[in-house]
Amino acid sequence: MKEHKQIKDWGLGLTGPTIIAGPCSAETPEQIEQICIEMKENNVIPSMFRAGIWKPRTRPGSFEGIGEEGLKWMEIVRHHLNIPITVEVGNAAHAEIALRNNVDVVWVGARTTVNPFAVQEIADALAGSDIPVMVKNPMNPDLDLWMGALERFHAVGLTKLAAIHRGFSDAYDKRFRNKPNWSMPMHLKRVWTGMEVINDPSHIVGKRDGILEISQKAMNFGLDGLMIETHHDPDKAWSDAKQQVTPARLKEILSAIDFKKPMESEQPSERLNDLRRAVDHMDDQLLDILQERFAVIDQIGAHKREHHLSVFQSDRWKDVMESRTQKGVAKNLSEKFMKELLYCIHEESVKRQEKQLREADPVKK
Ligand code: PEP
Ligand code: MN
């Protein structure tokens, strides 16, 4: 597996959970200073200060960021808070300017992660430095694209890496600005051991209400920190005005969150061990049943081949879906879970029967 350095080993003195706060966009030196002052007054000093210097706006004509000049204002943050600074880079020129201005950490935004050319260009521009890079998930829920971007940085020798979950565009579900998909960061953490994922509730929720709830959820799912857009006068912010919170509100949110401890660091109790053993046993039983079920599926496949029947039989499929979903719901399993489970089993069954057909009649490959 690819070795990388976790946030605590970035040499910035950070200890988890990582809290990143600051405005969506750097606007004026006065704005940056006021945010810092209010953070101090409210005794809410984040692990890192964020500020968008170049803003990837969806539509042209909105505020596109103050540019390099804004990086000079980061000295104000260092003076007041003495914490690391992170900014978004969207192309090679941004990356070079960020390095020249001693930015501590850069992040790649969702609109950039989708584009391997842009990611590679940024990776090449940062290569040779030791700067930590955080990669936001792409706009669409594609784990490979997210992983691929992290891999491009790793491949040029940048090993201080983390990911940020900021939710995904969804054409239909408008409850969120960007719908969270909790299984994706968890999957990323499984396939890339030790990869930390910071959650960005601001861009998920898109408004002030609900940031606490999503932050708590992220902690419950074992994510490793939070990035929360913070502005002293959110209503007057030049970008993302609806979702930014004041430093005072940031303090309230962080105080209300129940930060869970990772269980790995503790000795599990006897009770937990018993329960886990019971689950292990049931998983073995589930696997035995699945093995048996697929053996029967193979026999059905052989029968279909003999009688020239097609593998997919839509009436039967419809019936299986409806009856099993109903039974599952009656057993207190969610409809969504039942449908996903059945799709998964059915897809595997079809694949096996098609493979049988190909093997029996290699010409039809
Ligand atoms: C941001 O962090 O301000 C931003 C533009 O985020 P995203 O890339 O998640 O849209
Ligand atoms: Mn923003």
Automatic annotation (TrEMBL):
InterPro entries: Aldolase_TIM (IPR013785), Chorismate_II_sf (IPR036263), Class-I_DAHP_synthase (IPR052899), CM_dom_sf (IPR036979), CM_II_prokaryot (IPR002701), DAHP1/KDSA (IPR006218)
Record keywords: Transferase
Record EC number: 5.4.99.5
Keyword Transferase applies: yes
The protein's name: chorismate mutase
Start and end residues of each Chorismate mutase domain: 266-357
Transmembrane segments: none
Top-level division of the source organism's lineage: Bacteria
